[in-house]
Amino acid sequence: MVKNRRKFILGTARAAGLVALGGLMWSAYVDEVTANKLILRPPGALKEEDFLSTCIKCGMCVEACPFDTLVLAKPGSNKPLGTPYFEPRKIPCYMCPDIPCVPVCPTGALDEKSVSTDGKLDINKSEMGVAIVDAKNCIAFWGIQCDACYRACPLMDEAIYLEYEKNERTGKHAFLKPIVDSDKCTGCGLCERACVTKDPAIIVLPREIALGKVGDHYIKGWDKEDEKRVKNAHADTTTTRLSEKSAVDNLNDMGGLLDD
Amino acid sequence: MTNFWKHYRFLVLRRFTQVGLMLLYVGGNIWGWNFIQGNLSSSSLFGIVPLSDPYAALQMFAAGAVMTSNLIIGALIITIFYMLVGGRAFCSWVCPVNIITDAANFIRQKAGFNEIQKKQPASRDLRYWILGLSLILSYILGVTAFEFISPISITHRAVIFGLGLGWAAMLVIFLFDLFILKNGWCGHLCPLGGFYSVAGKASLIRVDHIQENCTNCMKCKVVCPESQVLFMINKESIQVLDGECTNCGRCVEVCDDDALNFSIRKLAKERIKNENDK
User: Fold this and answer.
1) pTM, to two decimals
2) Cβ–Cβ of A62/B74 closer than 8 Å?
């Protein structure tokens, strides 16, 4: 009886130990593979965190994509396994007006509402990423006329516009610098695909990685709309204890540094 | 020939459904066939009927994802289907990993590994622990924990969407089953199999044993991947009601004495009742 009880307890403890060991390795692995935030998702994808819990990895979006833009992450591609993504330098998103990849999603990981205006699909609302220009390696910033990305952009003059500036080096030419408006850019990557340099000087990054965030400390005082942004701001007050010593003493106090 | 058919009919049919279903999925992806699209995690039948892996849906629920009605309906359809035909019918009739583990088991038997390593060093209940663990990890990590390591999905996606390093996962499963543990993956570890064992507990289609016909040749126990479910052989005329039975039909086809047959759960009950009445 006692022996049986011991056997049972030992058996249970052994199983629990195995499960704990397995669970540790398992969670470490899953944590690691889902940590890669440098990944471009299909249009209408939820926030990365929610996307990872909601995507069932069925590949329906991949099958729906007429350009083979979307692929599922395979073992060895160092992306969250089985989830859809695209690499614009290989195949960009061609921004189909009927967005075939989104309505087929069975789990809502690709959210139709986020790419619709007044109940109609609107690919221009998608936020797959945002294009970033490397001004040092962009030949347009050198003064060579290029505008490849500008012309490739499906939202030409909105998402990418050209800024003209006098070229002081030659004295008679103009820089035609491509500038991205991150409010308009969908992250389709047609610019990255079109870029003429060896490695693209304009690349698409996930918005959470590429874009800054002003926070509550600054607002555009001239813009009524911007005040809404800081509506819920709250002030943190910090107190700093004033030194009781005189300023001269304070400066001369080396904290015992010069003593032997 | 008829003898071959008699002894391998269910095996041939199972390979046919496994490979055929995969072919339909591949056709759905490459040639746009509208029969079944997606993969075993979630598919769309004829472009209308949603089908979803209920275990994946359960993990999503644990991970705190918002569940769409499409997903819930799909998972319910699959659950009800397997509740009828036997939960682990998925394992032996649909799952692509079954082909790999059966191959390993076949070599094991031919090479006589089973005689050398008679006692299995691991418990078949491990899968339920892993099932529970997967749900806990899904909850803690906020992602579908098993779906990120599932060799079932890796294999199935490898066939439909391209291999990548997926062959490594298949090889590991094969070697594990061949050298380390008999029926190691499907019979001990796989939480999806564990899930379907529970879901199919009350299924309608079950193997029935008729003790009077049994000659105690034990062929059925040798071929059975879950031989613990055949505890009644030559002891009692009852149905194989354990959810861990995969309804693969191997025992039925190797039996030369008509002591094992597929049956409907209720009818067999009536038969037993009738006999008792006599």
Assistant:
1) 0.84
2) no
